[in-house]
Structures
1.
Amino acid sequence: MSNEDAGAFTDRLIDIRRRLHANPELSGEEYETTAAIREWLRQAGIRIADYPLRTGLVAEIGGQYGGPVVALRADIDALPVAEETGLPFASRRPGVMHACGHDFHTAALIGAAALLKRREPELAGTVRLLFQPAEEKAKGAAQVIESGALEGVRAVFGLHNKPDLPVGAIGIKPGPIMAAADGFAVEVDGKGTHAAMPEAGLDPLVTAAHIVTALQSIVSRNVSSLDSAVVSVTRLSAGASWNVISDKAILDGTIRTFDEGVRTEVRRRFEQVVDGVAAAFGTTARTRWTGGPPPVVNDARWARVAARAAEAAGLEVVAPKPSPAGEDFALYLKQAPGVFAFLGTSGPHEWHHPAFDVDESALPLAASYLAAVAGEALDELAAAGGAGEGEKQDDAAAGGVRV
Ligand code: NI
């Protein structure tokens, strides 16, 4: 690209990002956003693939001569946050804001699509573009998978902007990068009575207080110092009056873990502590899990490919600190191996802050990285005979060698 072209490309991506930013839509309600993406892709001559999604859409580039399929994902939804940036292109929808930078992700993927379209005849397979709805509610990835859009996908890549990394840096690492985000709701059943005669009842509030305290021992006594976990009780409610012992107490909160083994063990201990403490006070308790996504775990082989692509796109690869936030990109990684990267955007605030913003000069870098990693992944898969490790063995088997 000439300097002039590069300038026009950057301006175009900034324009797209600002239009999205001014018109944010909540999870599952991204109708105008979807229509806008469809129109931008149509203008770039990119074909829309036919997968049944109410909001969000899937498009494809390449594949004229067959070959493997890889996927690139951007999330497109906004948050119920009242914007306080004061930007000229601030949200025009009161109480709704792109406070997690999904406008940036969407613009970057449209940019990557344009770059890939230019080299479409040279692509060694198909790049499937997933414009995913409802990430903030951890619902959209499941909808995209349900639509069939991950079928045949051999590797999947996505990124999240990272305010605390500078523009020009990208965090890529194998292994866990974002946490499993489990929610819990515990209901403690006691027996209500007069506050002056507690012996006539079973106080669920005292049980709940002991449960909160006892839960603190899980991370300190059951999780190895080399692993990590968070158990946070964020809501505790019981009672309605100063002179009545209530019959019920409720505790809500979340558990964050980076490893499925740790996740299972923490949840098992959680239930044991809740049930045991409740029984000790003669009350009963029930734990209900509101399942968030599993941890985002990057594949080692594809992390190497992603790092190579990032360098080719002019980025500096750094080792990122994993984030204890959740991401439903994790569900794609259960379908196909891949990499979720953190792209530096020199932001003034963390994700979900009402004055959240990104440095837009990172947009062309994000687009170049996504295009590069898709191209590299297709080349790598095609070099392996259009087959992965498993299929290579099948080829050998067809040649008479049983493995
Ligand atoms: Ni986000």
Note: The CA atoms of residues 394 and 403 lie 8 Å apart.
2.
Amino acid sequence: MFNLILFGPPGSGKGTQSENIIAAYGLQHLSTGNLLREEIGNATPLGLEAKRLMDQGQLVPDEVVIGMVRNFIEARSAAKGFLFDGFPRTTAQCVALDALLKENGNEINIVLALEVSEEELVKRLLGRGLTSGRSDDTNETIIRARIKEYHDKTTAVATYYAQFNKVVHVKGEGTVDSIYADLKQEIDHKI
Ligand code: AP5
């Protein structure tokens, strides 16, 4: 099994690059943001509570997200591997993910960290907000709150995996194709 974390701040291109990578390597795409938006779309109690936090740019509680990830992985036990997009986002989520993978003798093989300047992130997300219908993209205050949450809680994920020498930093500015070529080179080196 090959397991990859595509890491980076909101708007760094995780979702965009995930599409190319899962197609090329046959990985299962696990985006916790997409799973939460499905819950919101279905108006479940979990979705209603998640929406309240997401609309303020805040993270959803670890136990909620970890439960969703466990269900997703257990339902795909024959997978060749997973691409984790937007997860883990806290040190507690890293520890839970490692434990979950270890139950079947697996681990995270590489963490690809996309690096994009804050002004470019804001520009991209405001641009997407014009058409995406994502309520957390429409307003610069919420976007900056998401970026702050990333700095306060999520950069710790890179620190956590750096202690195992699993983090590779990749420039996330340029064309989608050129960034994909850089990511692919790192994956091919590791796989
Ligand atoms: P989530 O859905 O994960 O959103 P995010 O991390 O804020 O990331 P985005 O989807 O906004 O950006 P992205 O990096 O995927 O970039 P994209 O490819 O879309 O999370 C949303 C919320 O859910 C969180 O705030 C939190 O509340 C909650 N949540 C989710 N996971 C959680 C967890 N694990 N724990 C707790 N809470 C959690 O690209 C963005 C835009 O840029 C697009 O318009 C795209 O076309 C454009 N773009 C992409 N690449 C380029 C490029 N190279 N040049 C120019 N434009 C580009």
Note: Residues 8, 10-16, 32-33, 36, 53-54, 57-60, 65, 86-87, 89, 93, 124-125, 127-128, 136, 146, 176, 179 surround BIS(adenosine)-5'-pentaphosphate (CB under 6 Å).
3.
Amino acid sequence: MPFTLFNFSAPLQKAIKSNNYIEPTAIQSKVIPHILSHKDIIAQAQTGSGKSASFVLPLLELWSRDIDEGKAKIKIVVLTPTRELTQQIAQSFTTLGAFLGETSYAFARRPKVVTLIGGESIGDQLYTLQKGCDIVVATTGRFLDIVSKKQINLSFVKYLVLDEADKMLNIGFDKELDLVLEVLPSKRQNLLFSATYPPKMQTIASRITEDAIEISIDNAKPTVSQISQRVIEVNPHNKSALLRYLLKKHKFKQVLVFMASKRATDNIARKFRKIGFLADSFHGDLDQEDRNYTLKEFKEKKLQILFTTDLVSRGLDIADVSCVINYDLPRSPADYIHRIGRTARAGKEGMAISFIGHEEQAHFKLIEKRSQIALVREQIKGFELTGDAPIKERGKAPIKGKRKSKKDKLREQASL
Ligand code: AMP
């Protein structure tokens, strides 16, 4: 099915071409026609499936058909769980809307897109809003901060998008959502995108949308099949040397290495830089400017290796990651899929390698079970796993709720 079937205006067709999109992805084929017919959508889609363009393109089409005279008014609000995803979606509106000044519609112009995220000056963001804008892409927290300042006019909003909504389900999200819905006009088109739909998500979906079309693509994890997944057994003290060996052997161009703690990513990045690799760390302790800079360097291929925590495991669109390394295993099987989904994006092939020692065997088995995979344990000559599996001593049964588990502690260290 070609893109031309959607009857997008010429400037959008031009943008599609200049972005080298040849055919719509599965989610785009299913979602775009419904958005164009003004339907609410509940879509199950993973990152890497082309889901951003599946709402950006039709929203730009609808928006461009009814631009008013005078100062820009906010018509589209997109809420996301992370700063990086916010910037990425804003970028997508800008690039796909780049030629919109060239239509025959009255008052045709390119959309003014504003990102509202924490870590950047709220004053600057308020100033940009006051100058007038058409599309707001925001993290929910900063969006509500700005709303509370009463300097944003949302009375013209026609479209609300919640992207990666399952990642917003933290404690307090219900309240935040109440506030968001309170400030938006009740008559609007709602688009909800989420990788999973646990019961809580379904409740939220029914609160936001009305007579929504539910869409999931048969192969909900389209990219995973193109990822060659490997698991290598190695002792913890040999992981760093094994990583060096693999980088040399496979000559990976762009590698994301996931670790359990922020400090570990800083330390190892420093060590790899010292021995000549283009490496850096990326995690939640960096300020926004550093995060943007590092990500830009990585995207522009000025960095080969990015050592990171789970901060980037969802949502981020880094096109050419050739390999994802789970230096430390993710805590949850769902995070495993999200992490490895950073490679093999948009039809490309990729590799995902997990390092496991004696301690991680049981946890990796659980990941395999939940992800419905079964991988052969490899050992690499010179880095073989030695020693015996630790024998679990039967101590007193833990008192529930008294002590944090080791994984919880790791999780806390790696917290975003
Ligand atoms: P997303 O799932 O939105 O994060 O998109 C993943 C990547 O696929 C992004 O780099 C998009 O630019 C790219 N993409 C989106 N739609 C298409 C398409 N129809 N053809 C090729 N690439 C696409």
Note: Residues 112 and 133 are 5 Å apart (CA to CA).
